[in-house]
Each structure stands twice: as C-alpha cells, then as structure tokens.
Description:
The chain is mostly beta strands.
Amino acid sequence: xxxxxxxxxxxxxxxxxxxxxxxxxxxxxxxxxxxxxxxxxxxxxxxxxxxxxxxxxxxxxxxxxxxxxxxxxxxxxxxxxxxxxxxxxxxxxxxxxxxxxxxxxxxxxxxxxxxxxxxxxxxxxxxxxxxxxxxxxxxxxxxxxxxxxxxxxxxxxxxxxxxxxxxxxxxxxxxx
Length: 176
C-alpha cells in the first residue's frame, strides 16, 4: 500500500492539508501538493494520510500550485522505479495519462548515491490499466535493468522484467 503523509496548516480561515513530494538536493522537496480535506484519512497511529490510488485528479492553479481534488472520473497513482546504487532511473508511459507530475528522490544530499525518478499520475478510469516502461542504471545487484509495469485500478502492480520494447513485446506475449 502506497500513501502520502499529510501535514496541515491551521489558519483562522480553516485547516489546509499538504504533502511535500520528492527529495532533491540537500533534502529539499520537489514540490508541495495541496490536498482536499475530503481525501485525508488517518492510519492506526493517528497520522493523516492519503492512500493511493485514490479517486482524485491533480490540477494546477493559476499561480502554479499543484492540488489533489476528488474526482469520480480519475484515479491518481504513485509510480516510478528505484535506481541502482550510484545510478539513475527513468520511465515512459505506454497508456494515455491525464496529468503527470514528475519528481526525483536523491539518495544522498547531492545525489551521488543515485537519483530515482517517480511521478504522481492522474489517469482517466476509461484508460485503465496504467502501463509504463522503466529502466535503471547503476549497480543493480541482480535486479533487472528494464521492464514494463502494469498497474490495475486497485493499485496492484504486475512487473514484467526484461521487456525492452514495451507494448510491442506485450502484444507478442499475448499471441503466444
């Protein structure tokens, strides 16, 4: 189960929920995601979280802030792949996505131990399942360098390691 840890700011106007996403140079977040209070739940320890996937869509305000809002037509996922030691990772979506907000996680303050690529992705329910091709470099210690991941509506991931061409290889496997 993937989830976002939510923090809150209390003002005289109300309570505002947000999550700092990513971890770039010297542990600075990539961006701040403001979250609708209707999506926030609590875990067994009493911490505020948003469990992903969630029926919501990511949108950008006129001033450039990212907001996660409830939506019956979209699902929002946390996708990506961890890099190898002192390596990097990348991904490419094979199905259409409504909104993709990419971010990185640096595994050391300056990224010398590796940089992993992730994204928060909103997908129309009609375009499910979500499929993306990924690759990673660095010392992999037995992990495969590339593959395709298929994400179902409930968030379960099926990883087909070692596929290089993505959808073409999937279609060929279906015909066998």
